[in-house]
Amino acid sequence: MSDKQPYRPASPEGSDTVIIGTDDTSNYNPGHVLPESDDTIASIREWLCSTEYDHEGSEYRKHLAFHLEGTGEWLHRSENYQQWHQTPENGLLWIKGVPGSGKSVVAASLIDKLSQEQVPVLYFFFRQIIDANHRPINLLRDWLVQILLYSPPLQCTLKHYVDNSRSLDSVSIDELWKHLKAALSSIPRVYCVADALDEMDDENNDFIAQLAELGHMKPSSIKIVLTSRPTAYVEAAMRGIKSLNIRMDSIDEGDQKLVKEAVPGRANGLFLYAELAMNAFLEPGANVRDTIHNLPLDLDTMYIGLLQEHARRSGISEKTQVMILQWVTHATRPLRLLELADMLGTAIVDREPHTLKEDKDLVRAACGPLLEILPDETDGKAGRVSHTGLISNSL
After folding, report:
1. How far is CA 252 from the centre of its chain?
2. Residues 234-270 pLDDT 10s
3. More confident position, 361 or 116
4. Where would you tag: which of 17, 48, 296, 371 has the fewest CB atoms within 10 A of its CB?
């Protein structure tokens, strides 16, 4: 929490009146339960074992960094968004879009925008390739941590678990749901954002439905945002649940047809080619027809072009990039930055000495979109490096 004192308007001179600011009532509760001490809250947070949801390398921070100032305003001006945000009867907004359409960037920028209202904003980014981000129970734990400061009754409830040395694993998902709903219902205004429902573990239709139903529990004060691809099982879980929908269709139908014809034909069944090609269409100001004309003929040509362009931009030689890429693609598991930096320090003959930090920074900057830095779940400091092609599937 910030050390900065909350702003309080001055009381009229000579008056006994005390004017109460927003921060004075942010954790108000009808039962007049007093908040726990900072040490107690810290112990509860530790007990909940949340993910590093606001860490520099978190999914939220990563996607927020991709948001360009001034973009996405169309969403805030859309009729469905306005109805969701302003009317008391609409509490659920569902944003759908195909892969690469920018849903996660929109979710991150929306979290940032809503946080400026000085009310709680709970969020979670599902990711199948990150161990801590594909189980439903991790969302509940993160949201409980994020709302903890605003709910003294929740602090009191969870303190009993800590005081009685109850293990977190012994607390059922139903109990966590009950505590979360109680906390949400007692707060005057709260936003909850769950990104990429389709990347949650399979067979969790009931959990998706429960998330959606939060938007109907108290729609005037509990506002829910869900994002997903239009997959069959998410659609099935949401069937019959009233929601306001927004489609992430960023180009007109004519251009969509051109892209659908051009990319799969050149991809020749390789999802990786299609994924990398679609990045070109998502560049700010990209012209669809010009981009199609400049698409590489095959994946080999695309790799060469990407490495050459990245070498020009970053100053890292193609030889060094190819060597790092070979290490990553031939590894049986994602390599850690520390491992790659150690290898880099000994593999290049006649290379000027570099510090370990410099070598790690070089690995981070190498190969552009062909490598992905994943958060390390053991220490949260040194990432793991994965080749984007390792997670590709056939079209």
Report:
1. 27
2. 999 999 999 999 987 645 555 556 555 555 555 454 4
3. 116
4. 17
| Distance separating alpha carbons of residues 237 and 212, to the nearest angstrom | 9
Distance between CA atoms of residues 224 and 195, nearest Å: 11
Q: Is the pLDDT of residue 108 over 70?
A: yes
β-strand partners of 335: 385
Distance between CA atoms of 57 and 52, rounded to whole angstroms? Answer: 9
Q: Torsion-angle region of residue 70: left (phi > 0), alpha (psi -120 to 50) or beta?
A: left
| Cα–Cα distance for residue pair 141/215, rounded to 1 Å | 19
What percent of the chain has a predicted confidence (pLDDT) above 70?
A: 69
pLDDT score of 57? 85
Region of poorest pLDDT, from 94-103, 229-238, 258-267: 258-267
Residue 373 region, left (φ>0) first, then alpha (ψ -120 to 50), else beta? beta
Q: Looking at the DSSP assignment, which residues form a beta bridge with residue 393?
A: none
Q: Is 295 left (phi over 0), alpha (psi -120 to 50) or beta?
A: beta
Domains and CATH numbers, the chain: 28-247 (3.40.50.300), 253-391 (no CATH)
Can you give the pTM of this predicted structure? 0.62
